[in-house]
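Work Package 4 report. The design task specified in the project plan requires that, given a folded chain encoded as structure tokens, an amino acid be chosen for each position. We show below one input record used in the internal validation round.
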């Protein structure tokens, strides 16, 4: 089994890997997140690739043949507007004002990078998952109280489905864990293919 290296500092992603009993190491990528594409599904793939390759290329050569580096990126999209993490309190309130009472999409892109032999170029696969999320209406007072908790500030779209914002989640269509930040079932299946030698990349 190859060692999984998570190229992310996200505590939610770490918790999801721990939840399924996966052994892994965290080496966060600090590379600047700049995407060429502004199409949500393309953007998350692009950014996940950048993060995964950043960490893979920093690994000592002797570690590359025994590791799978996983990079991930999540965005919220509403009517073609892409929402990452809020820049400040006002930005968080604006995002929640747009999302409340409506349906939006959450995209998470994942890239896995590994090397079969030291002499070979690295192999890579990327995929994304999309989940539809419908929210109940929120008053400005409710939005303000939620932002006061500080929970929205490090989350795409300014909310955490697994946290206090659960009170305003009406319905989801798709992978719940994708909204948390990592489509953990799909990730596990792809890693299993790599370890079983089925993935040709």
């Amino acid at each position: 089994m190859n060692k999984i290296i998570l190229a992310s500092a996200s505590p939610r992603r770490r918790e999801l890997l721990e939840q399924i009993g996966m052994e892994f190491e965290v080496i966060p990528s600090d590379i600047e997140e700049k995407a060429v594409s502004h199409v949500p599904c393309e953007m998350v793939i692009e950014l996940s690739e950048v993060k995964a390759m950043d960490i893979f290329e920093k690994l000592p050569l002797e570690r590359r043949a025994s590791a799978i580096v996983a990079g991930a990126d999540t965005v919220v999209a509403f009517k073609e507007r892409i929402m990452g993490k809020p820049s400040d309190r006002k930005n968080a309130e604006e995002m929640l004002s747009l999302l409340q009472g409506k349906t939006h999409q959450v995209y998470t892109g994942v890239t896995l990078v590994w090397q079969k032999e030291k002499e070979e170029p690295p192999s890579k696969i990327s995929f994304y998952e999309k989940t539809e999320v419908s929210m109940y209406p929120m008053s400005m007072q409710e939005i303000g109280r939620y932002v006061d908790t500080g929970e929205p500030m490090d989350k795409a779209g300014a909310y955490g489905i697994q946290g206090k914002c659960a009170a305003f989640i009406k319905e989801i269509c798709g992978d719940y864990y994708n909204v948390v930040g990592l489509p953990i079932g799909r990730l596990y299946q792809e890693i299993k293919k790599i370890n079983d030698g089925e993935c040709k990349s």
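The beta strands are 3-6, 24-26, 67-78, 81-83, 103-114, 123-135, 169-173. Validation will be extended to a larger panel in the next phase.
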